[in-house]
Amino acid sequence: MGRFQMPNESSYTAKLKKRTLEIDSRLCVGVDPHFSLLGTTSVKTLEEWVVQLIENLHESAAAFKFQFAFFQQFGVGGLSVLSDAIELAKSKGAIAILDAKYADIPSTFEAYISTAFGKNLEGMFGWNADAVTVNPYLALEAMRGLVLWDRYPGHGYYVLMTPAGSLSPNISEDTQRALDRVTERMLKEILTWTHKDQKRQPACLG
Predict the structure, then answer these.
(1) Is 187 helix (H, G, I), strand (E, B) or coil?
(2) Which residues, at least 6 apart from 124, have a Cβ–Cβ distance to it below 8 Å?
(3) Number of Cβ atoms within 10 Å of the Cβ of 182
(4) Cα dist from 190 to 146, 165, 177, 183, whole Å
(5) C-alpha distances in angstroms, 174 versus 28, 165, 178?
(6) 40 dihedral zone (left: phi>0; alpha: psi -120 to 50; beta)
(7) Model pLDDT, residue 163
(8) Is 101 an active-site residue?
(9) pLDDT at residue 11 greater than cutoff 90
(10) Active site residue: 101, 188, 196, 199, which one?
(11) Confidence category of residue 204, pLDDT binned at 50, 70, 90
(12) CA angle, 113 as apex, 111 and 117 as ends, to 5°?
């Protein structure tokens, strides 16, 4: 994935670069606790597995990417484990990425993002993640405002650019070409966001 270098030392790009240089590694560990992987639906086992993973790998991992859906499968207890895991990873100096692939209309999308980047303050819940994955195929307009105006400085967005349909083995060549054109146009639009107002130094995109 491409990354746009930002001169602002407090930007997400700068934080990520600092981390990779500190440990001489670009490793991003995907934390995907499948039921089949753990062999149980026990929240306690989930917690032990995640803590052990972070403790064993944090010295060589620049980032941990937590797949929201797999924690959600464990219910409220699983979400509590996710919250604690993000804090543990960050306490070790690693970057915490919430892999939720958010996509929605502007008002709902901003609620997702404010929760992803927010902290647990004054009764408001937040995951306190450094970055989040997003799906632009529904959220393009919502993303534009948040990125251009840098509503959440120091945070980053990883943008899904492969349409889900293109992963199907039964898709026709004509449909694939159409999907490719949509992806290309969307990518060009997103790229313009980093140039419209250089003084604002838009949020990092990956």
Answers:
(1) helix
(2) 118
(3) 14
(4) 12, 21, 20, 11
(5) 35, 12, 6
(6) beta
(7) 62
(8) yes
(9) no
(10) 101
(11) low
(12) 120
Give the pLDDT confidence score for residue 194 in this predicted structure. 61
pLDDT, tens digit, 9 for 90 and up, residues 94-125: 999 999 999 888 889 989 999 999 986 666 78
Which are the contacts of 194, defined by CB distance < 8 A and separation ≥ 6?
A: 4, 202, 205
Question: Any idea what the Cα angle at residue 153 is, between residues 110 and 197, rounded to 5°?
Answer: 95
Q: What's the rounded Cα separation, in Å, for the pair 57 and 178?
A: 41
- The confidence score (pLDDT) of residue 201 equals 43
Please state, in angstroms and rounded to a whole number, the distance separating the CA atoms of residues 107 and 186.
21
Q: What is the mean pLDDT of the chain?
A: 84
- Rounded Cα gap, residues 164 and 195, in angstroms: 28
Average pLDDT over residues 67-93: 97
Interior angle at CA 45, CA 44 and CA 46, nearest 5: 90
> Which residues make Cβ contacts (< 8 Å) with residue 24, sequence separation at least 6?
none
Dump pLDDT digits (tens) for 23-68. 999 999 999 999 999 999 999 999 999 999 999 999 999 999 999 9
* 48 C-beta neighbours (distance < 10 Å), count: 13
Closest CA to 127 of 168, 99, 147: 99
Q: Token digits for 115?
A: 């929760």
Backbone angles phi, psi at 71, to 5 degrees: -75, -35
Answer positive or negative: Cα dihedral of 164, 165, 166, 167: positive
